Amino acid sequence: MDRLFYIGVSAALFAAFAFSLNFVVPFIIGDYSTFDFALIRHVVSGLVGIYILFSEKRVVRHLTLRNCLQAIWLAFIGYVGYFLTVTGAAVFAGPVIAPAFLGLVPIVLMVIGNQRQGSLPWRSLMAPLALVLAGLILVNGTAFTAQGLNSVESLWVGVPLALAAVGLWVWFALTNQAALAARPEMPSGVWSALILVGGGVLMLAFYPVGAAMDLFQLPALGFGWNAAGNLYVWGASFALLATAGGVRAWNIASRSLPVALAAQLIVSETAFGVIGGLIVHARWPTPMEVAGVVVLIAGVVLSVRIFYARQFAPVRTLLAQE
Hints:
about 80% helix
């Protein structure tokens, strides 16, 4: 039981890191659009999913119409939709303000998750929640100052996109955990693969529509390696790490941890996102940002300790007495 708990914690932290990479995408793809990047990323991820499905034994019994449709829906909510809204928020609202709004995700998830599952008494969550809130305020303290607004293209577009990303991720996390709970016989790898394939199918289906709307730059800039090689390398790398790795890690965490704890762990996405933004813009963090990251980490560590003590320590004590 201890091992399963720590596997879940590690998986949630890795998923947070993987998802935070979305914040730096707009700043590494040159003249290509985020839609070009999403196409390459999700098609490669879909191919990875197909490989996983073919490598699993007795996978056919899981490939029902209901499972496939549910996986495509989850891919639309949590991966294609979330990716496009969060990268759009980074483009229009800048690499600091976008992570600031995404910091709302763990708060909303923790409240809804604990309300649904009753994992812990509310008084036990007050201390880690207070640390998380304080950390978010410190990390994002400069986001709306004159300095923080220098990289903002349009708050009127960026902020609604960031709020949409919050809603999509909360919706995905709750729906995905419910779907996994309703399918105890479904291997996590197969479920992750179905979602990956769903994301690839959705992006391929969207491409003709997006191309007609001039959302893709590939037709104009070229599909050849000389022109698009950088896009292919970054897209494939993110597909393997952020999408395929993130999906698998989050599904493992969803099966191993209560929603309220997973939500507290995913708050580290904000810290990773801010660090990535600082690297992209080649500057050192301010003392306030450093303090915010430290406080966020303290909140995450305290959450893990509280959940472990409340749910697993009594079991170990009972086993020791026997």
